[in-house]
């Protein structure tokens, strides 16, 4: 079986992506942002693939080259945080995941620029529509399932060859669910991404601290 785009290399590091892959990812993300804005403003049921393509500045044929259905178009936006999460974990120097993950949560969920804040606000709009649309809900669950699966081989490298596979899976699940629950609970309210109350990073930190207590023992 051929290695996936996110398979680890022989040295445990993620392989560099080609220029064509990076361009493709940028295009997919631009389409995802256009879809997210339209879904949040009008509701997914009122938006067509043609409208998403027009908003993204591409042809309908190009849209279908990247996505099979309009509901799939938001997936790159939902996975962008998971991609950052995996990249940061792969390059981290720390060897204790219980100390590493709290830092990475802040790296992923604390906005550093105006663009980061806007991206989180757009994501909030998408997550609010997820609960109302079965196909979007399925996409969100798939993103989180895939994120957990991608964490496991990296955590195995970090924890060493003697690590219990079940403990590794527990840790991957706890880390993924911390991000998911933090984002979902924050998205249900109106707090700014880096405001004083209910930020996604603070909520995710609280979830991780509570769920990881058993792992620390």
TrEMBL record:
<dbReference type="InterPro" id="IPR009057">
    <property type="entry name" value="Homeodomain-like_sf"/>
</dbReference>
<keyword id="KW-0238">DNA-binding</keyword>
<keyword id="KW-0804">Transcription</keyword>
<feature type="DNA-binding region" description="H-T-H motif">
    <location>
        <begin position="48"/>
        <end position="67"/>
    </location>
</feature>
<dbReference type="InterPro" id="IPR001647">
    <property type="entry name" value="HTH_TetR"/>
</dbReference>
<dbReference type="InterPro" id="IPR050109">
    <property type="entry name" value="HTH-type_TetR-like_transc_reg"/>
</dbReference>
<feature type="domain" description="HTH tetR-type">
    <location>
        <begin position="25"/>
        <end position="85"/>
    </location>
</feature>
<protein>
    <submittedName>
        <fullName>TetR/AcrR family transcriptional regulator</fullName>
    </submittedName>
</protein>
<dbReference type="InterPro" id="IPR023772">
    <property type="entry name" value="DNA-bd_HTH_TetR-type_CS"/>
</dbReference>
<keyword id="KW-0805">Transcription regulation</keyword>
<dbReference type="Pfam" id="PF00440">
    <property type="entry name" value="TetR_N"/>
</dbReference>
